[in-house]
UniProtKB/TrEMBL annotation:
<dbReference type="GO" id="GO:0005212">
    <property type="term" value="F:structural constituent of eye lens"/>
</dbReference>
<comment type="subunit">
    <text>Homo/heterodimer, or complexes of higher-order. The structure of beta-crystallin oligomers seems to be stabilized through interactions between the N-terminal arms.</text>
</comment>
<feature type="region of interest" description="Disordered">
    <location>
        <begin position="1"/>
        <end position="21"/>
    </location>
</feature>
<comment type="function">
    <text>Crystallins are the dominant structural components of the vertebrate eye lens.</text>
</comment>
<dbReference type="InterPro" id="IPR001064">
    <property type="entry name" value="Beta/gamma_crystallin"/>
</dbReference>
<keyword id="KW-0273">Eye lens protein</keyword>
<dbReference type="InterPro" id="IPR011024">
    <property type="entry name" value="G_crystallin-like"/>
</dbReference>
<feature type="domain" description="Beta/gamma crystallin 'Greek key'">
    <location>
        <begin position="24"/>
        <end position="63"/>
    </location>
</feature>
<comment type="similarity">
    <text>Belongs to the beta/gamma-crystallin family.</text>
</comment>
<protein>
    <recommendedName>
        <fullName>Beta-crystallin B3</fullName>
    </recommendedName>
</protein>
<dbReference type="Pfam" id="PF00030">
    <property type="entry name" value="Crystall"/>
</dbReference>
<keyword id="KW-0677">Repeat</keyword>
<dbReference type="InterPro" id="IPR050252">
    <property type="entry name" value="Beta/Gamma-Crystallin"/>
</dbReference>
<feature type="domain" description="Beta/gamma crystallin 'Greek key'">
    <location>
        <begin position="64"/>
        <end position="108"/>
    </location>
</feature>
<dbReference type="GO" id="GO:0002088">
    <property type="term" value="P:lens development in camera-type eye"/>
</dbReference>
<dbReference type="GO" id="GO:0007601">
    <property type="term" value="P:visual perception"/>
</dbReference>
Length: 114
């Protein structure tokens, strides 16, 4: 399977830092089981379907965590995605009514160190 990288995908892969200086990285696929067109992100994306993908079928979180939303512009039901593989929508959602994921952002955890 050939991997496709488009100009919008490269633009979306900006630098962002999380945790203790680590980066964020997630790979989003159009089809289930990590097939089809893919998009790598390291910064927030308010609309995955605008120019990057037609839909979200599976996700691989390489470093994170990430906060995923069922609607564009970080709205709707939220899902916390930790490092790991999510081969289809029911791997990240317990909801039987919602199988869409349209926006993503790194989840920045800020706390006090004692």
């Amino acid at each position: 399977m050939a991997e496709q990288h488009s100009a919008p995908e490269q633009a979306a892969a900006g630098k962002s830092h999380g945790g203790l200086g680590g980066g964020y990285k997630v790979i989003v696929y159009e089809m289930e089981n990590f097939q089809g067109k893919r998009c790598e992100l390291s910064a927030e994306c308010p609309n995955l379907t605008e120019s990057l993908l037609e839909k979200v079928g599976s996700i691989q979180v390489e470093s994170g965590p990430w906060l995923a939303f069922e609607r564009r512009a970080f709205r709707g039901e939220q899902y916390v995605l930790e490092k790991g593989d999510y081969p289809r929508w029911d791997a990240w959602s317990n909801s039987h009514r919602g199988d869409s994921l349209l926006s993503l952002r790194p989840l920045q955890i800020v706390g006090w160190l004692r």
